[in-house]
Amino acid sequence: MLSGGLPATSFLYRLHPLVKVGVASLFTVAALMLGDPRSLGLLLFFFLALFVTSRYRPRGRSLLGGALLLALVGLGNYFASRDGGEAAKYSLRLAVVLLGVPVCAAATPPQQLARALARWRLPPALVVSLLLVWRFFPVLKEEVREIREANRLRGSGRRQEWYRGVLVPLAFVVLEYAERLSLALELRAFDPAAPRTWYLLPRLSWQDGLFAGAAAAVLLAAGVGDHCGWPG
Amino acid sequence: MRGYFSTREYVLAALLAGALLVTASVIIPLTLPLRIPGLANAANAPLASFFLVIGLARLRKPGSLLLILGLYALTCLLIHPVIFSFILTGALVAEGVSWLLFRGFATPRAQVAGVLLYEMTSFPAAMLFSLWLLPARALKPAWYVFLAAEAAIVVTTLAGCLAGLKVARELAQAGKLNLEGS
């Protein structure tokens, strides 16, 4: 859902990776627990405000795709329940879930995340593997989009599109990346069993405190509104 | 210094976990709003089992399924703890049973059995964890609905596994996949 540019000088980009990931995870869990569309709207508003303050420029295509998906989910739920509030609840919940983690992924360079995880003394192989999943998720998603676009340009049939047209080329792409990446790591003398040192370790700053405080306040307001009811 | 898995194996497992995440991110949001028990698992199973079988055909060692699914589960932990819990439970059960029966994933039969066990276990595990952690949102289907969902998951998983084995052989013939171990 999220692809486009996020400036490296933005507020969100400079935050501590674990603070960002922690807030996104908390918001995702909260979105699944809250039931009032206004509380869910507040969580969504928080992420949209982050976009604005980070000077994020979404691609028109991603925006359109996301809006279409949310509209489809909303319509599907409306026809299933005949209740506008229920339909809004599911669409807003899905929007928060789809935005939370990708916002953090787009705003966290993999090196920063690895440095932050290094503080937990996890095995280096696990840190690098997690980093690859995190980093290559948007890359593989983009590859799928390009494969499907190429198929459309060739005018291939819909029925065969998923297997011959998408899955098989994606398997080739995954193996190709795996080959190139492992070669690059081996050339840099990476050993999964060897201990690793880090030159720069991220530290918490006042901006992290401000961000975590604002997120906690929004979460509290959404929770109170959901539990006690919103005024009016 | 040499660990149990090599750098190449860790990288392949990580990228396959990324591929699982990509396919799940396309399929699952489309099926979840319908709230039909097992639909998300049955719809996602052919794609997930396709990639898992290719990974197991290459890695073959005991612990390979747990490595791929462990990385996938850890990434899903950022999305929701319930997702992490049921993926890891399914992976642990499938890996344990596969180790007891086949001592790894050296044969296509072991590879298919491992993936099938994971898909079949993760659905009831997901229901149990949802019931425990999110009782208000959990689905409580009748036993025959549950059995029908499990049957659908088995059928779609087998289809994905067969396609995965076929493509793994094709990739090996093309020189892209080493099926003889590292």
Show the helix and strand layout.
The complex is a heterodimer of chains A (232) and B (182).
Chain A: E1 4-5, H1 17-33, H2 37-53, E2 57-58, H3 60-81, H4 84-106, H5 110-118, H6 124-154, H7 158-187, H8 206-228
Antiparallel strand pairs in A: 1-2
Helix pairs in contact in A: 1-4, 1-8, 2-4, 2-8, 3-4, 5-6, 6-7
Chain B: H1 7-31, H2 39-59, H3 64-76, H4 81-102, H5 108-133, H6 143-173
Helix pairs in contact in B: 1-2, 1-3, 2-5, 2-6, 3-4, 4-5, 5-6
Could you explain the architecture of this structure?
The complex is a heterodimer of chains A (232) and B (182). Chain A has 232 residues and is mainly alpha-helical. In chain A, 74% of the residues lie in helices and 2% in strands. Chain A has 2 domains: 1-111 and 207-232, no CATH class; 124-191, no CATH class. Chain A has helices spanning 17-33, 37-53, 60-81, 84-106, 110-118, 124-154, 158-187, 206-228, and strands spanning 4-5, 57-58. A two-stranded antiparallel sheet of chain A has the order 1-2. Chain A is flat and about 65 Å long. Chain B has one domain. Chain B has 6 helices and no strands. Chain B is globular and about 45 Å long. The two termini of chain B are 16 Å apart. Chains A and B meet through helix 1, helix 3, helix 4, helix 6 and helix 7 of A and helix 1, helix 2, helix 3 and helix 6 of B.
